[in-house]
Structure formats: structure tokens, C-alpha cells
Predict the structure.
Amino acid sequence: MPANWRWVSNLQQNKILIERQIIPAPVSVCAKRATGDWLKVVSHLNPLTYVVDALRTCMLAGSTSTFGLSLDYIVILVTTTVLVLVGARLYSRLAT
């Protein structure tokens, strides 16, 4: 760790730790580094990508959404609805 570590902002600290591979990089960061497009496709199919994008946009000052907040909210709503319906159907089968 650098000697002046406490003066480095949190975002810079995370970038340094990811670059030095001390902490694992998120899939969205790995997708930018990957030579193939398969990891980018997996990242776009993962609903948590949109949750993180929405949270990052809402919580960080001056941050912009990668996919747009409307798409983030639509993906979150559709995923939640599908999982609730699947859970309700499975619960009725398992409860009997």
C-alpha cells in the first residue's frame, strides 16, 4: 500500500486494488478487459448489473447511468416479477 494511502479517495483506492488484483474486479470491469465479447453478453444478461448501475447512479454525485435509469428499473421490475411468480408457483407445489 502507498505511504499516503489515507489521502487517496475511495474510488482511486478501489481502482488501485482492482488493477493490482488484490480484490476481484466486477464482471462489468472484466468485460471491458476481455478479448472476446462473451463476457460482455453474460454481464448484460445478469440483472445485478442493472441493479449496480442504478445504485451507482443514485448514490454517487455526478455519476451517469451506463444503460439509462429507465432500462435499469425495467429490468429490475421484470426480474422481480418473474422471480415472485416462480416462487409463488413453486411454493404452492411444495406446501402440499
The longest helix spans residues 69-95. The helical segments are 10-19, 27-33, 38-45, 47-59, 69-95. The chain has five helices and no strands. Residues 8 and 57 are 22 Å apart (CA to CA).
